[in-house]
Design goal:
This protein is mainly alpha-helical. The protein is 70% helix and 4% strand.
Length: 211
Amino acid sequence: MALMAAVGAFASVVCSWFWWLQGSRDVQTENNPYLGFIYTSFQEKATFISHGNTARLAKHYGDTNLARICGIIASDEKRHEVAYTTVMGKLFEIDPDASVIAFADMMHKKISMPAHWLYDGHDEDLFAHFSLVAQRLGVYTAEDYADILEFLVARWGVEKLIHLSTEGRKAQDYVCGLGLKIRRLADRAQLRSKQKHTIPFSWIFNKPVKL
């Protein structure tokens, strides 16, 4: 029975990996380099944070191997973040109007992690449920999303941009005020989510997990 359960859990992981590979190509960057560098700047910062937090949790609960693996991945993600934000910073210097418009466009679409296509063959809302667990555990939260946005606004000097077009100024106002809006929405969502539900995850032998 234990062997069958292990095989079933492994099959679910493989299935999830397959769906991730199939769907993760579409992150709404439209083959636009401005959108691409904004997306990757944000996404690499997010994965640095989430892997770092996972490493800390793993260490706290005694899984030193997992902590080391996640720590190595977090370090890699940090290097990627530095590279992409530096490139995008140069684009802001050379072409601030198009850059800030692209920034606003990408934030309107919302930055979805490539894993939002995850599917294990059972749960149609797998990534949504996974995200709720990550939020509850402090692995990656709405506050982190707002923090990353505000970090990029400061990193690229978005508030200080001048000589923008009308569309560029609207984009500037939007991205500079978005962090506060996200925090307010997160606070409201936190107040509404008093009732806790559980759902089984096929990756861990269908063990029920609190959302």
